[in-house]
Write a structure and sequence with these properties.
single chain, OB fold (Dihydrolipoamide Acetyltransferase, E2P), Rossmann fold, six-stranded parallel beta sheet, 38% helix, globular, DNA recombination
Length: 652
């Protein structure tokens, strides 16, 4: 019933052959004058059809004996297809053919064309849909005043209109999915998504979590010794998280903020609030470089307060790792930072009260659940997800409706604007000269490459090759190399050398995408920028502009650019605001891909479009909350109609 047409064909009228124009599909009716199998230039069935206005040739390159019989001379047929000029004059290639009797009435509705798959014919789908429409009750579950206010038809009328549109329907509105019948379906789909996610949200609030009220003992001490003051946005985020942590049910909050908006200090204060109550807090990051950076930064802030932090990663020596595991298991250490190593079985966190996941979109659902399941005494820990990839408001309202969302929408003072330049690969020598001049003047630079080894398929410059080329071209500079296949110690040593200024230039893959903070680095070159996603380009660009020097990001691109590549580079060139970039990214990629990494079974919208149908989203949210409060049985019926029991996918 809800398998709705992709488009429609108009078989409610017949067009005279002489009036048929190329470029549009039409239906003609006439008598078969002749029909034969021709062997040249290749085997094909050719028929000539005549009506009162003229003659038309129809050709089939693939055909069955039954079609040959259907097209016997003297038979009356209707053909549906596109007319175009051919060797024999006007012709239709592979039209749909239907034998008719003289005077047979025309259909009274447009013919729906459904999404299908190999081996499933349109005719079979139409029969299945007709059976469903007859068998399934099309009850109206939504309040009449809401439908009237939004000018939406009732459910039964909308479904019948979409499956069997009458001939006088506004075909353009139907094709464009702007017809009231389409809007009715889209509204209910958005409503079901809101109901599902709010139910998941409410279900989580029935679980127990340790209440961690703010005592201020450690948090106030940290705020007093910081060399900077929190921005207004940071203070609001800290207050919202502190309130959630004091509750006896698990926090499920998404903290999002642009590159450099100061999420780490917010996380540090949340971890201290857990420690003030004698509970453990862990911060999990997707890469070793980022995790180690967090560990060092948190250590610098918290060690003066007498707070110890464990460090867990896959590359640590066995003896060191075992020692950290023992300290965590005994409860001696309350705070830990690490990579995926945190969720492996041997890691025991008997007093886990808070789990923070940085760059949460990089982790799958099982990984986040594994962290949650380490909660103390069968309780769920509070969860704080952080993301420097801003989520457009429409996505936050829909796909993330099961989370509380906090936005850091201010940058700390002192961040310098970054000048972005687009440079063709043909001017590479000038870019190398620019890097030399900047480094000799006392600055540091990044040179980012998309791949580690040569890929014949993509033929991209690699980090290894670029490192060798730049080392030869810039003998006066000290150059380091970092990529994902280096051992942890080598990566750490190179990053430390760059951070302390021993290296002028760091050649790297995207392992430096997030979290790397070297204030003296003010120049970045991104090789093959057209190959990167917008979020990645914005993240990489955010590695510079962290000090007082004017910062430049050079995007090196290779011609010819695809339309998509050109669109992405235009957006990153024109915008520095991560939220504006995220909106454009959503527009270019669509929500399916944008949200795909959430990996949580969130029902992707089949019919509603978050850009075009944003006016339906707010009313759907409001009605969802009302139904859950006042009419939970009605809410369950609407969801059953759409989800049919698949709602379990949302539990993560």
């Amino acid at each position: 019933m809800l398998h709705l047409p992709l488009r429609y064909e108009d078989e409610t009228r017949v067009t005279p052959i002489a009036a048929a124009r190329g470029g549009t599909a039409v239906q003609i009716e006439g008598e078969v004058v002749s029909s034969e199998i021709m062997l040249r230039p290749r085997r094909q069935l050719v028929a000539r059809i005549r009506d009162a206005s003229g003659m038309l040739v129809a050709r089939w390159l693939n055909f069955y004996p039954s079609q040959q019989k259907q097209l016997a001379a003297g038979r009356r047929v209707r053909l549906f297809g596109e007319v175009r000029g051919g060797f024999f004059g006007d012709e239709m290639v592979h039209p749909r053919v239907h034998a008719v009797d003289d005077g047979e009435p025309l259909p009274q509705a447009l013919t729906p064309i459904y999404p299908t798959t190999a081996g499933l014919a349109q005719s079979a789908l139409r029969k299945l849909v007709a059976r469903a429409l007859y068998a399934v009750p099309l009850d109206e579950y939504l309040p009449e005043p809401v439908l009237a206010e939004l000018r939406l038809p009732n459910f039964a009328d909308a479904v019948h209109t979409l499956h069997h549109p009458p001939p006088d329907v506004d075909a353009a509105a139907l094709e464009d999915r702007a017809h009231p019948a389409w809007r009715r379906i889209k509204f209910e789909e958005l409503l079901v998504q809101q109901l599902s996610l709010r139910r998941a949200y409410n279900a989580r609030r029935t679980h127990r979590a340790p209440a961690l009220p703010a005592t201020g003992r450690l948090c106030d001490a940290l705020l007093t010794q910081l060399p900077f003051r929190l921005t207004g946005a940071q203070a609001r985020a800290v207050a919202a998280i502190a309130h959630d942590l004091a509750m006896p049910h698990p926090m499920q909050r998404l903290l999002q903020g642009d590159v450099g908006s100061g999420k780490t200090i917010v996380a540090a204060l949340a971890m201290l609030q857990a420690a003030e109550n004698g509970f453990q807090a862990v911060l999990m990051a997707p890469t070793e470089i980022l995790a180690e950076q967090h560990w060092r930064k948190l250590g610098a802030w918290l060690e003066p307060l007498g707070v110890d932090i464990a460090w867990l990663s896959g590359s640590r020596k066995r003896r060191e790792r075992d020692a950290e595991l023992a300290r965590l298991a005994s409860g001696e250490v309350l705070l830990a930072v690490g990579t995926h190593a945190l969720i492996e079985d041997p890691v025991l966190l008997p007093r886990l009260g808070l789990a923070i996941v940085d760059e949460q979109h990089r982790f799958g659902v099982r990984q986040r659940l594994a962290l949650r399941d380490k909660g103390a005494d069968g309780q769920h820990p509070h969860m704080l997800m952080m993301s420097a990839t801003p989520i457009p408001r429409t996505l936050a309202m829909s796909y993330y409706a099961d989370l509380d969302v906090t936005v850091l929408d201010e940058l700390p003072p002192g961040r310098t604007p970054i000048l972005t330049k687009l440079v063709s690969d043909g001017r590479r020598d000038q870019v190398v000269a620019r890097v030399r001049d900047a480094c000799l003047a006392g600055c540091q630079a990044y040179w980012v490459c998309p791949l580690i080894e040569e890929s014949e398929a993509l033929q991209l410059k690699t980090a290894l090759e670029t490192f060798e080329t730049l080392t030869a071209a810039l003998p006066e500079l000290r150059i380091g190399l970092v990529h994902g296949r280096l051992k942890g110690e080598e990566k750490s040593a190179t990053m430390a050398a760059f951070a302390t200024g021993e290296l002028h230039l760091l050649v790297a893959t995207t392992v430096i995408e997030v979290g790397v903070d070297v204030p003296n680095a003010s120049l970045m070159v991104i090789e093959h920028a057209e190959r990167f996603g917008l979020a990645q380009l914005h993240q990489l660009r955010g590695r510079v502009g962290r000090g007082t020097a004017d910062s430049v990001c050079i995007l090196l691109f290779t011609q010819p650019l695809s339309e998509n590549g050109r669109a992405r580079l235009k957006v990153i060139y024109e915008h520095s605001d991560g939220f504006a970039i995220a909106r454009e990214d959503l527009h270019i990629r669509g929500p399916g891909e944008f949200v795909g990494a959430r990996q949580s079974g969130t029902p992707l919208l089949r019919y509603a479009d978050l850009e075009r149908d944003v006016d339906l989203l707010e009313p759907a949210r409001t009605l969802a909350e009302r139904l859950l409060d006042e009419a939970p049985q009605t809410a369950a019926r609407v969801m059953e109609r759409w989800l049919g029991g698949r709602e379990g996918l949302l539990r993560a």
